[in-house]
Structures are given as C-alpha cells and as structure tokens.
C-alpha cells in the first residue's frame, strides 16, 4: 500500500520495536533500509512500485512474520530472491533456527532444494495429493505439529509427528526469544547485517501539491482526461497496448472531454484516496516525453537485426539515492541469448527497464538498438516493437481476446495456436469444447471429459417439454438470455470471457504464460524476460525455455533469472553487482574461472 515501509509491515498492529527489527534482519531487509533516504520510513508506492521484485517479496514475508501466528502458510516465499538471501531467510525465518521455528509452517515451493528440510512433502498433481513423510535435514514442521496437534493440518501421521518432536535438536526446545537472541549464522554473513534504527520523517506529497503540479503542466482539460484514464488503467496497460498518455493529450486538445465526464470524474474520483495514485502515474506519463516524434519515426520493420548496445549507462531513482546502474558498457549481438543474474537489488530489472525507457529518473548515457539511440524516438513508436514478460505479469480488465491482442492485430486462430503452444488453452476452455469448435490441438482421447453445459442444456430441454403454456412463457424469459449467444462459436469457447486485473482464476505462473502467448504472436526481434518463469514449476520452466529457444531462435533475448537452470543454456551471462557488470562471458567459461558466477552456482546448490 502507498505508505511507509514500516506501516506496510505493521499493518496497524502495535509497534514492538525489538521484534520489528528482528523481523527486518531475518527477512534480509536491513541493507535495503539503510540504502533508502528515509530508512524504514521511506514511502513505498502502491503495490510496491518503487522497490525491486525481491524487496517486495521480502517485505510481504516480513509483514507475515510480524503477525506472530501459530500457523504460517507461505506461498512460494523464495521464488523472487537470490540464492544467498534464500539461505539467509531459510536460516533466520523458515527453518527451526528461525523466527517461525516454533510455529507450523506450510510452504508451497518450486524450489526442490527446500525439500530435504521438510517433515512432510505434499505433491499436488492433477488435483490429487500425495504425502511423503521423511526425516528432515533439520526439523522444521514436526515439533510444531506435535505442539499444536489440534491443528487442521491434514496430518496423516500424528504418531510420526510426536516421534519427530522428541528429536534431539536443541533449537526445537528454544522459545522464539532464545532463537532470536542467538541467531544462527547465515551461510553468507553479509546477507543482512544488524539493523540500523535511524528514524527519519518521510517526505509526503499532498494531493493538492500533486494536483497543482499536473495543472501547471497540462491545464484543465488534459488534467481531467489524464486522471480519468489513469485511474482506470495501469501503467503497464498503456505500455503493452501501445497507447500513451501523450496520445490522450492530443485528444484533449481537440476538446473531446465532455462536461458530463468532467462532472462524473469530479464526483467519483477526485476526492478518493485512489486519485493520488493516479496522479503519481500521470507524473510518470508526462515525464516519458512525446508519444510520437514526427521527424524521427520508427521504421515499420524495426529493429532489423536486434543489436543492443548500452553506452556509459548510469541510472538513479532519485537525486539522493545511490546509482542503481553505474556506467554500463556492453554490446549484445543480434540473436544472442543473454542471461542476467545477480543478487537481489543488483540492478537487473533496472537494466531491462532502460531498454523500454520506463525510467524517467536520472538516466545518463544511452541505449542503442541497431544503431538508433532509443531516446530519440517517441515512446509510442518504439515500445511496441520490443517484447517483454515483466516480473509480475498482469491480466487486464477485459476479455481474454483483448488481453492477448489489445490492438486487434491477430485472428482468433492465432490466439488459440499461441495458447496451445504455451499450455494455457485448457485454462480458457476444455479440450472437448475446443474440439467441437474446431480448435483442438491434437487427437488425444477426450471422450471421457464431461461437458457440463451439454448436460445442462438437456435438462433445460426436458423441463421445456414437460412445462405447460404458462410455465413455458416463464422459461422462455429465463432462458432467452442464456441461449442468446449460443450460436456464436467463439463465445461458446470462452475467448470472449471477461477476466479481471486481479482475477484469481489465474495463478501467477499462468499469467506469465499468457504474457508468453503475447510475445509468440508478436515475434519481436528484441525480447526481455524478467523472471518470466520464476512462478512456474521446473518442468514448465524447461518447456517454456524450449519454446523460447525454438520460437525466438533469430531474436535477441535477455533473460533475467534467479533460477540458474533457466539461463544455463545462454550464449553469455552478465553478472550484475551493485549496479555494475561484475562478470560477463559464456556460462561454462565463467564457472571454470571460479568467479562470481561460479559462486552463485554453488550457492544455488545448497
Ligand atoms: N522505482 C524505484 N524507486 C526507487 N528505487 C528503486 C526503484 N526500483 C528499484 N529501485 C532500487 O534500485 C536498485 C536496483 O533494483 P532492481 O529492481 O533493478 O534490482 P534487481 O536486481 O532486479 O532485484 P530483484 O532480484 O530483487 O528483482 C535496488 O536497490 C532498488 O531498491
């Protein structure tokens, strides 16, 4: 939420200073806090927009750990952090030596390296669960299961749990307090030093200051257009759709904003807290510069080959902040596959953002694609020519079709083909129905699949047959709407189904797969995959990598990943460290050299 880092963790709960700083340390947030101008009182934007993906994940973990619950359900808590931080969090939070050591911890994970530490491994496949009990490398869950054996833990073996509780592990007998007083040394002692407790007052922009700023820049009509639009559509939406606020500015000049819209806006939006978030977005849009630069248009087949060059590139997110990128110089050749790795906060995503000019802060130096400095182009012109799967993929409000093809460039068949390739077609419509609409991917036997709609239609027909005159009239009214669109083939197969921005029908992995569908349909010469497979299981990750290799063999692909398997087959690896390139070269060479990359590989093997 749009508040200080501390408020984001406390969530209105009492401030227990001692425990709070222990949580900060355990969740490896100390160094981040120290690097921010207002320490833990630094404002975090809505949905954590001004912190890195890893920082967001650790903040969410800290919020949960601060709740001091008896039972914790942690949904893939380590997917967005590097191997060192993963180890630190395991030791200081999740394992029995950590802050949650005395609680029951149910952890969902794609990280197989975590499995040896668990008492029970529950595998979920095709909606069936199988449970494996084992002797953990370190006692994680068992002690707590027996201590709170009233738990609704679906624990199939209480005896086993009790047995485990008697294991001779001193850490198990310690209270949380004792554990904390004697923290287990992390594998990497530098992962998070002791916290600094400096408290500074945050700088806050009032709504009025925000509004004045936008008024001064763009005047009344533009202001209202901007706010109405920005309130409804996220930044990424604009980017992906190829729209831009500058285009709206043009509309506003031609006086397209009706008074009704203005009044409606004033009533509904202006006085709501959400508006300040919209205003933040507006500032970003305005700072992006023109949508189209008439005397420097991007050619239609651009970029022709996909050569990417970073020249003396430095980036800061604010005058009083450290450089997030420092004097980067590197040439990426056409068609090269580059893996970008590095500790959390090293600058990987910032590097990706510079290629899309998503940063309006202090950017020095340049990014050139096929010899063109991208700063010269209008953002609306060059962005749609590049492809990205961002760290957090989004589904937009609208139909599945609009999500896949916001600019109406492709046929329905293209969309199904992409969804089938990426393995998400079944999420939208079962194979049986697709087949009846002529869009099945193979001849696999699907006769056993039950078609609920057909069963329902039959039941409706039977009801109709039995009904008298009056009842038929009533049924006619009730069923008319239901069957109105029954003849629409595409309606029947669900691509016109509405999905929402925060639609929980889609897992984060599935959202990433939908982003991959968009890329496959567009076939851009330069692609950025920012933790594009972090949320999917290893097998799907492997399939996605294979698909990326075959579909984009001619393209330049920059892949950011903490999971090293994902980038091991890259032509070259860039290891980022504190905003700089610490190492660059083919993966096997870097491993043989025994430097930073070799260290990361080793850390990943724990
Ligand atoms: N919008 C922002 N405003 C201020 N600082 C930011 C912003 N985004 C990132 N930073 C800071 O810039 C640095 C680099 O962040 P970046 O997101 O590039 O790291 P990363 O290597 O991608 O990390 P992760 O692996 O955690 O995703 C971090 O210190 C982060 O706190």
UniProtKB/TrEMBL annotation:
Residues 308-603 form the ABC transporter domain. Pfam families: ABC_tran (PF00005). PROSITE patterns: ABC_TRANSPORTER_1, ABC_TRANSPORTER_2. SMART domains: AAA (SM00382). One of its GO terms (molecular function) is ATP binding. Keywords: ATP-binding, Nucleotide-binding. Coiled coil: none annotated. Residues 157-182 have a biased composition (Basic and acidic residues). The keyword ATP-binding applies. It comes from the Eukaryota. InterPro entries: AAA+_ATPase (IPR003593), ABC_transporter-like_ATP-bd (IPR003439), ABC_transporter-like_CS (IPR017871), ABC_transporter_C-like (IPR050173), P-loop_NTPase (IPR027417). Residues 183-193 have a biased composition (Low complexity). Residues 151-202 are annotated as: Disordered. GO terms for cellular component: membrane. This is ABC transporter C member 13. It comes from Coemansia spiralis.
